[in-house]
Design a protein that fits this description.
single chain; 318 residues; alpha/beta; two-stranded antiparallel ribbon; 11 strands
């Protein structure tokens, strides 16, 4: 269906009659595989207590090109694709992504907290069925900034935003009321994705997994989002703005349970604005840290990733 009336299209998104849109489809900046960028939940429906009601965005494989099975209205059967590919086209060399088990030849779940078989699989099923109008095909691509205007947007609910062109994100986030976004690709070995991440320092937080990451990201002009091992945080002894000299000056996530332990209250990502990158509401704020959370949070130990450390050394020598 072609859409020519923006007001009617916006009403359809706001009410859920149109469940979302494909903002972009093309070759991944990571490995060139076909991927899609989907935005949905425009009607404010979100089951995430931490983020609150935000438009969600998903970087996903093109299901037909990837051979992912989709049956009727059910979520896509994404697990076989994850085991075969490790989600490389959308997650790159993120240290929390699926990891190859040399013994079995299959990839296994890493420390990423996202349950891929839930919202990502449901969204991918919608892509397969043609539920989402495509920018530049079903509606004018010039509407992208208007679709995002005045909304709270989460950049990268699953997948790394830097797998997609920076210009698409700039359009979509240009007039957003509030935004959050994170990228591991700022330190990636994939040059195209790394360039995208560095072009979006004002939009995205640099996801950090060690003290070396944190220091390098801040030195490079990013604001950092540092996930620390959950057992390294002592709410009774730690300062609100530090968990040690190696990240002195960072503030604890205002949407976290640990923040609530200090203040007796916490906020939602949709209202906070601290994770907007080096620009936006967070421009004058410190970097942010949070103890690892979610079902896989116990797997995060703060150890240096050899591949990431080598990449950081190359960046420092450049």
């Amino acid at each position: 269906m072609k859409y020519t009336d923006f007001a009617a299209f916006k009403r359809a998104l706001d009410t859920g009659k149109v469940p979302g849109v494909i903002l972009w489809q093309g070759a991944s900046a990571i490995d060139g595989a076909p991927i899609v960028l989907v935005a949905n939940r425009f009607d404010g429906a979100s089951g995430n207590d931490k983020t609150g009601a935000m438009v969600q965005t998903w970087i996903l494989p093109d299901p037909r090109a990837a051979g992912i099975e989709c049956n009727g209205t059910r979520p896509a059967k994404i697990m076989a694709w994850l085991k075969a590919t490790g989600a490389r086209s959308i997650c790159g060399d993120c240290p929390h992504a699926w990891k190859l088990n040399p013994g079995t030849g299959a990839h296994e779940k890493g420390s990423c907290y996202v349950r891929e078989y839930q919202a990502p699989a449901a969204t991918l099923g919608g892509v397969y069925r043609g539920a989402y109008p495509i920018a530049g095909v079903d509606f004018p691509a010039e509407w992208i900034w208007r679709i995002g205007a005045g909304r709270n947007i989460r950049a990268g609910s699953y997948g790394d935003p830097a797998a997609c062109p920076a210009d698409v994100w700039r359009d979509f986030l240009a007039m957003a009321s509030n935004r959050t976004g994170y990228t591991h690709m700022w330190k990636s070995a994939y040059a195209g994705a790394r360039r995208n991440a560095w072009r979006m320092r004002d939009l995205l937080m640099a996801s950090c997994d060690s003290a070396a990451d944190y220091r390098a990201a801040v030195d490079a002009g990013f604001r950092a989002f540092y996930v620390i091992p959950r057992d390294s945080f002592d709410a009774g002894a730690a300062s609100l703005y530090s968990v040690g000299a190696h990240i002195d000056g960072a503030m604890i996530c205002p949407a976290s349970d640990e923040f609530e332990a200090f203040h007796g209250r916490k906020t939602e990502c949709a209202k906070c604005g601290a994770c907007s990158g080096a620009g936006g509401k967070g421009a004058r704020m410190p970097s942010v840290f949070i103890p690892a959370h979610g079902a896989t949070g116990g797997r995060i130990d703060g150890a240096e990733c050899p591949a990431a450390l080598a990449m950081l050394q190359k960046i420092g020598a450049a």
